[in-house]
Amino acid sequence: MSFASIPLEDKQRALSELRSIKEQFSARHWFPGTSGNLSIRVGEYAPDNFHFAITASGKDKSVSTPEDFLFVDQHGKAIETTNLKPSAETLIHCEIYRKTGCGAVFHVHTVYNNIISEWFGDQGAVPAQGIELIKAFNIWEENAAIEIPILPNYAHIPSIAELVPGVLKPEIPGILLRNHGIYAWGNNAFEAKRHLEAFEFIFEYLYKSLLLQGSRTTK
C-alpha cells in the first residue's frame, strides 16, 4: 500500500492518538529533556512496505504544536516534504515494526528503567517473577517468570537496530537499552500503553525490592 492510498481519517486518527499518549506520558515526566519517542503505524503492513507516524526530533513533549509529528516509511525516511526530522532512534522503531508487525511503539526514559537496565546489564536481561503486572503481557501462569532483553546503548543507532531482531521474544513486547530507556509495543496504541505501564511497574517493583534486600543485609 502506498502512503497516498491510506485514508486520511486513518492518518488523523494516528496523530490524535499520539497527541493523547504524549500528553499522558508527559504528565508522568517520562520525557525529560525532549527524550523519548512515540510512533503508530498507519495503513496495511508488509515487512518491506509500511508507514508510521512518529514524534519529531528535539521537541518539548510537554507542549503541543502543529509540528510534533511526521510520517515516515519502512526505512525511517520522511514521506512528505517537511522541515521536521525523525529521531535517529526511528531506525529501532523500523526494526520492531518489521519483525513484529505491531501497530504502535513507545519509547521512554525513566529513572527506574535506567537503573534496572544498568543493574542487570551484564546479564543481558532483566529477570522478573511472580509480579502481578506480568499478566499485562497475557502471561497467566502461576508465579510466572519472564526475562526482558537488554541491548547495549551504542551512540551509533544503526548498530543497536541491527541487534533488535536477535533479542525479540514474541511473549515479551519490550526491549531495554542499557542505562537509556525502554521500547514497548503492541497491536495498537492501547495495548502498547498497557505494556509500557506494566514494564515500568515491574522496574519500580524490582528497584524497591533490591533496596529492601539491601537494608535487610545491613541489619
Automatic annotation (TrEMBL):
Class II aldolase/adducin N-terminal domain boundaries: 16-207
Entry's cofactor comment: Binds 1 zinc ion per subunit.
Gene name of the record: mtnB
Biochemical pathway: Amino-acid biosynthesis; L-methionine biosynthesis via salvage pathway; L-methionine from S-methyl-5-thio-alpha-D-ribose 1-phosphate: step 2/6
Stretches of the chain forming a coiled coil according to its record: none
Binding-site residues, Zn(2+): H107, H109
Phylogenetic placement of the source organism: Bacteria, Bacillati, Bacillota, Bacilli, Bacillales
Cofactor: Zn(2+)
InterPro entries: Aldolase_II/adducin_N, Aldolase_II/adducin_N_sf, MethylthioRu-1-P_deHdtase_MtnB
Family matches, as SMART domains: Aldolase_II
EC number of this enzyme: 4.2.1.109
Reaction equation(s) it catalyzes: 5-(methylsulfanyl)-D-ribulose 1-phosphate = 5-methylsulfanyl-2,3-dioxopentyl phosphate + H2O
SUPFAM superfamilies: AraD/HMP-PK domain-like
Signal peptide per UniProt: none
Name of this protein: Methylthioribulose-1-phosphate dehydratase
Species whose genome carries this gene: Paenibacillus sediminis
Function: Catalyzes the dehydration of methylthioribulose-1-phosphate (MTRu-1-P) into 2,3-diketo-5-methylthiopentyl-1-phosphate (DK-MTP-1-P).
Single GO molecular function: methylthioribulose 1-phosphate dehydratase activity
Alphabetical keyword list: Amino-acid biosynthesis, Lyase, Metal-binding, Methionine biosynthesis, Zinc
